[in-house]
Amino acid sequence: MSAKLIDSFEFCRQMQQLSGQTAISEMARLSVELADTQGELRWSLAGGTHSSGLPQLKLQVAGEVHLLCQRCLTAYALPIATDTVLVLAHDDAEADANEARLDDDSIDVIVANTALDVLALVEDDALLALPLSPRHDVCPDGAEAAVVKDKKESPFAVLKKLKS
Ligand SMILES: [Zn+2]
């Protein structure tokens, strides 16, 4: 897959936008989670400034992936439509400080990079949208629907924990 690299601070400062479509088969980490690799993800990334004054990236990813139901072992389609806000920091210490300052679980703070891989970010966002245990709401064979829906922890949060 051809990398799309951006200078993340510049991208925000100049309020740049980037969008595209990427075949799911080009996303190796996502592909291993899926029943097949058909289809593609549409994505858009917009640089700007968060209301706190910090640089932010708005990332939207949309498409449909095919997951294998863990209850009946048949494939089903899951629509993905994310709307993610990422606030930039210069380093880990600043990322921690900004996370505390923003105090908003819906926002992830990431360490900025002069060569941020946009497609890796799109793939991370799609991975985050997957359920921990893929299951039909109601299986075709009539097995009962799961009551509890799993929620995955943000991969960005996981990364930070590993570092600290
Ligand atoms: Zn099922």
In short:
With 164 residues, this protein is an alpha+beta fold. It contains five helices and seven strands; from the N terminus they run βαβαβββαββαα. Zinc ion binds next to loops.
Task: Tell me about this structure.
With 164 residues, the protein is of the alpha+beta class. The chain has one domain. Helix content is 25%, strand content 34%. The chain has a five-stranded mixed sheet with strand order 2-3-4-5-6. A two-stranded antiparallel ribbon has the order 1-7. A hairpin with a 6-residue loop joins β4 and β5. The two termini are 31 Å apart. The mean pLDDT is 89. The protein binds zinc ion.
Helix and strand arrangement:
Layout: E1 5-6, H1 8-13, E2 17-23, H2 28-31, E3 40-49, E4 55-68, E5 75-89, H3 92-102, E6 107-111, E7 116-117, H4 118-128, H5 155-163
Parallel strand pairs: 5-6
Antiparallel strand pairs: 1-7, 2-3, 3-4, 4-5
What would the keywords be for this entry?
single chain, 164 residues, five-stranded mixed beta sheet, 7 strands
What global shape is seen? globular
- H/E series: EHEHEEEHEEHH
Strand content: 25-35%
- Unreliable stretches, pLDDT < 50, 5 or more residues? none
How do the strands line up in the largest sheet?
A: 2-3-4-5-6
Listed once per kind, the bound small molecules are:
zinc ion
Rg over CA atoms, rounded to whole Å, is 17 Å
Helix share, percent: 25-40%
**Mean of the pLDDT scores?**
89
The count of helical stretches stands at 5
What's the end-to-end separation, in Å?
A: 31 Å
> What number of structural domains do the residues give?
1
